[in-house]
Amino acid sequence: MSVRPHAVVVAAVRGVRAQVCDALRAAGWTATETQDARSALNAAVHTKPDAVVADLDMPGLDLSALLSGISASAEAGGVPIVGLSSTRGGPADALRAGVADFARKPVDPSEVAVRVVAAAQRQRHLNGLRRMALFDVLTGLYNRRHMLDQLRVLAAIAARRGDDFAAILVDVDGFKRVNDTHGHATGDEVLSIVARVVSQVVRTEDVAGRWGGEEFLVLLPRTSEEGAVLAAERILVTIRTTPVATPNGVLSVTASAGAAVHHHGRPASDVLVRADKALYAAKTCGRDQVMAAAPST
Q: Of 237, 245, 232, which is closest to residue 278 (Cα–Cα)?
């Protein structure tokens, strides 16, 4: 059974709210009525709507605050807002502020419903494109491009605050043999499980992504070398103790890791170069272990 799309409707006039909600329900949606911006934001937090309909003529409405609040409540991507207004400058002002679409008052509820459905479809398409730009399709982790962006951001924050940050590179051991012996479907399953392990083991403030192939990158704000090594060890232990089911039985997987701390005054990329060298050392010293990087020279 599919879940019907949901809208939050905020308007001071009860009749307007009721008519728009009835039209949305007739279009196959569910709807929540609210009479002010605060109630709308609370409803958005609890219901995670696919769209919001807002009466822009409501006294005391702060449109920018409503837009930012609705956006912050969204779990992934944005939520389109369809505005209602009778003012002459309404459409241009609202669209410039970030409203997805606009209907003039007195409203035709059926027209509003059509605009809401169309705005939600456009937003879903945009969210899909945004996700493709940020995330790795197979594992669901951030992709390499986004991880590079996050590295630059983290380096800038560290430079401003004087904090340390660390990078961990994790590489699945013997992955080519897994593909050759068990097939690429099993290899994909291994990568998905390792990605899940990495995302579950790291802290909420850490950033994890697929760096390429069977390699994963974790960026750790405010972390010392000791903290990075301990985090990497937790990842490797969890990978080692997580079985992978295959048509030929259960497969045990291990991984190796290199950990490095960013040194102030060095390029952001330096921490990745050193983590990669540490990873190579872990591989050559027997695999299934963590090695800390040598200091920058």
A: 232
What residues pair up with 51 in beta bridges, in sequence order?
Answer: 7
At 7, give phi and psi (nearest 5°). Answer: -130, 150
Closest-CA residue to 42 (of 65, 91, 8): 8
CA distances in angstroms from 230 to 208, 224, 277, listed in the order given: 16, 10, 18
Q: Which of 123, 10, 121 is nearest to 63 (CA)?
A: 10
Q: What is the pTM of this model?
A: 0.71
The dihedral sign for the CA sequence 19, 23, 26, 28: negative
Question: Which CA distances in Å does 2 have to 28, 113, 115, 121, 124?
Answer: 11, 20, 22, 16, 16
Please tell me whether residue 135 adopts helix, strand or coil conformation: strand
DSSP assignment, residue 169? E
User: Which residues have a Cβ under 8 Å from the Cβ of 166 and sit 6 or more positions away?
Assistant: 219, 220, 223, 224, 225, 227, 228, 231, 259, 260, 261, 262, 271
Cis peptide before 5 (omega within 30 of 0): no
Q: What are the catalytic residues?
A: 214
For the stretch 119-144, pLDDT in tens is 999 998 888 888 888 999 999 999 99
Q: Is the pLDDT of residue 297 over 90?
A: no
Cα–Cα dist 283/41, whole Å? 51
Q: What domains, with CATH codes, occur in the chain?
A: 6-133 (3.40.50.2300), 144-292 (3.30.70.270)
- 55 closest CA partner among 99, 118, 117: 99
